[in-house]
Write a structure and sequence with these properties.
The complex is a heterodimer of chains A (about 325) and B (about 675). Chain A is an alpha+beta fold and about 325 residues long. Chain A is built from six helices and 17 strands. Chain A has helices at about 1-15, 35-55, 60-80, 230-235, 265-280, 300-315, and strands at about 20-25, 30-35, 85-90, 95, 100-110, 115-120, 125-130, 135-145, 150, 155-160, 165-175, 180, 215-220, 240-245, 255, 285-290, 295. In chain A, the strands form five sheets. Chain A has a five-stranded antiparallel beta sheet. Chain A has a four-stranded antiparallel beta sheet with strand order 1-3-5-8, with no helix packed on it. Chain A has a three-stranded mixed beta sheet with strand order 4-12-9. In chain A, α5 links the parallel β15 (about 255) and β16. Chain A is elongated. Chain B has three domains: about 5-150; about 205-505, no CATH class; about 575-665, no CATH class. Helices cover about 50% and strands about 15% of the residues of chain B. Chain B has 26 helices and 21 strands. In chain B, a hairpin with a 3-residue loop joins β20 and β21. In chain B, α2 runs antiparallel to α8. Chain B starts with a helix and ends with a helix. Classes of the chains: A alpha+beta (about 325), B alpha+beta (about 675). At the A-B interface, α2, α3, β6 and β7 of A face α1, α6, α8, α9 and α21 of B.
Chain lengths: ~325, ~675
Amino acid sequence: MIEQFKPVWQRWVGRRIPPASRIELNHRRIFILPTRVGGTYAFVLVLLLLVSINYQNSLAYGLTFLMVSVGLLAILHTYRNFTGLVLSASNARSVFVGEPVQLRLRLESISSGHHAIALGWDTEQLEQTDVGAHSQQEVALTLPAINRGWLRAPRLRVESVFPLGIFRAWSWLDLEQTVLIYPRPVPGSMPLLQGVQPHAEDDGQATRGEGVDDYQGLRPWQAGDSLRRMHWKAWSRGQGLMVKEFTDLSGHDLCLDFMALGGDIEERLSRLCYWVLELSQRQQPFALRLPGFLSAVDSGDAHREACLRQLALYGVRA
Amino acid sequence: MTLGNLAKPIPRVSLNWLLIAQALVIVPFSLHVPVSLIVLWLACTFWRIQIFRMRVRMPGTWVKSGLLVGTAGGIFLARGSLVGLDAGAALLIAAFILKMLEMQTRRDALVLIFLGFFCVAVGYLFEDALLWGLFTILPIVTLLAALIGLQQSGFASKPADTLLLSVKLLLQAVPLMLLLFLFFPRLDPLWSLPQPSNKALTGLSDSMAPGDVTELSKSAALVFRASFEGPVPPRNQQYWRALTLEQFDGRRWSQSSRAQVPDAPDWRRDGEKISYSVVMEPTGKPWLMTLDVGETDLAGVRQMSDFRSQRRRPIDQSILYTVNSWPDAVRETVLSDGARSQDLQLPAKVNPETREWAADLHRRYPKPEMLVEALLSNFTEQPFHYTLKPPALGPNSIDDFLFGSRSGFCAHYAGAMTFVLRAAGIPARVVAGYQGGELNPDGNYISVRQFDAHAWVEYWQAGIGWRSVDPTAAVAPARIEQGLEQALAADEDFLGDSPMSALRYRHLAWVNSIRLSWDNLNYGWQRWVLGYQGQQQLQVLGRWFSGFQAPVFAGGAVAILGLLALWVFKPWRRESDSQLRLFNAFERLLARHGLRRQQGEGAQAFAQRAALRFPAQAEAIEGFAREFEAQRYAGVSGSVGHLRRRLKYLRRSLPWRLSAVRDKPQ
């Protein structure tokens, strides 16, 4: 029954609270309903009223009406505590499939303080925080990364039952938070473009038997050499700082190729992802070839990000 | 609060407030529940605090069940039953106390808080005096503070803040509460419930031996207060009838069985009408006090055959009623045979001397009124003495009194006179009620107390009907004209058993004036607050807003809620909000011209971009942006109006309007 109306409800909320990166809670966006505790409160009020009527006791009537008034006032106070809170999304860091995404939200008070604000993706697990008057508060919420590509954060549930817990003010916000999720890196043999000789390092276990002879030997360390290539064993033997040298650091270009792999698309992307990370860590220039895409041979963080982005978005154009 | 939250432990602040609230809730009950419950409460509180300090563990299931059964058993032993209001209240308090012990989660705390509110309401059934009413504000405030303290917030962990917010909430709730109190229709009880009964009520009963009135005369407890619409009638006419005693067994006068049968007597209004309202304290008896012949329109009250007003249910709570009385009314010119024989009834054989004397009087004075005259002058002339400490009388009590001791008080005189009249063949009966009362000059009302209890006589004559006569007035006129204290001889101590009673210090002017003012305040409380039920409400509403109750109520509710909303939201303080709103309007304005602010673009950057796009309006755009940044971020205080004017200036300076841009975007 409820499931049936969910899409209708979501469309309605979508129209009523359109997505925005910065949202101030106001009367258009706040809903107020009694909580379960509020139901109990109402039940107690009915009991009190029955006592007052049956005993014709003016003081009991007075208490009943006082509590009715407090209950009504609680609506105003709950609303007051909630309204004027400004929520905005901070940038989120991309992660790989299977890792938790940390989504950072900024809560900002533009007038009075906001107490006991609960935030979360579903009503069962909410983070509680307070926002002082004219101040800001950062909250990090996590979301599991299940699929690669753009992860659009679901509508955020913000609520508060302050001060009495008998009414809940809540809203359902879309802060347009998106995070790019990279494929899960899976180790395996290096998928190289056919016709190009493999190049690899001594300790790349996946390349064993293929590129060991590329290892040239050791040479004395010079300023500017990567620490990764240091031959620590030689240093520990007292032979001084030595660097492992490979024949063709810039000889042939490595090209990671989508077509060189078997298996389904996700498996191939995972393997490519692993090698993008691996080669970037070794600071070895490489190119990435996907159907319909060929990157330049390059190294560095920007190159890595560009490649990962291509892998993440392969086939899921957004 | 989500369900997960309800299962969380109770914050310290809330627990503290709950412990205090519990003490405050229980105080008014301390005289109405078994003492063992108070001991239980102290023990449980100590235990709970030790649990909180991690010194002891929570009670196990067995301990809890044992406590529950033990407490219920204790209440059963102390009250003799587990039903009825007293036992019910004791059980409620016991549950309230024991719940504190087993309280672990927020849900338990909520149950305890709501139970506390309910206990406060039940407490009103036992104690509803002004001071107690004011006192209960304390438990209500602390219970509300405990409820706020259950919130998971930095705010709720500060005891002072929670208390302050709770006080603020209650203050804000008062206007709406008053409105509801005034207008909410008072319904008749939906079903009958056990009434509070453990008050040791003193007062008139349906039978009277002389000693009973002596007991009453020691009590200064209030019986009722009456306010007159016109002038207060003279004191010697204030005879408040409660009931008549028609059956004499030689020692006691009691109510006859005939008087129990509802049978409206025949009477005719005559003379001046006296209108007044009475607030009567609970008596546990069904009679209302009225002056003769009284008529009241209180629901469930009827006039009985002996002109007393009787309610169907006993008076268990103080009530307010209005009465019209006709003191000169002609009552029952024709007496039925049954009534006649009842009012001539005498026990066989006792008091032979009196019977003889009565027969002699009857021979000498054949007319009843002359015989009554003779009797009264006999009381005046013979050395009769008015005292609350009469000597004991033998089996022929009236003989002993009339011809022996000759000292007694109203009950002796009324009883003896009725006996003589009956023996002389004149139907007569004893009327029990109250006479006189203290006039409170502050409030122009009279207070009648137990020591004003009185008994007098009424006799019947064919064609004339019933006439009242008071033999005490002949013996001790001071009792009637001034009151008991003045009537007593110097050696008899007035209210000797209650040395603290302020009434004993009436001669000290300042004590008396404080006492009278306080009494007046309590009377107002009773009349206007406690007595604000059914009729009183209709009267008040009719007088103030005749015919406009519904619109006044609706308008009042809207006005109160509106004012409260203003008070809570303080819209005039929301300056920064208006700044944002104006900036949004600025954004919308430029968007209409095809320029949208990009995500993450600051106000200044956006304005610069806009200025490049609309060079002609660059000055206006940058002016607005500068003002906005200065007010919002640089902390420069400027009026919102200033910002609004700049926006208006920009809007005017932009060449085209919304419709133009939609049709031909540039």
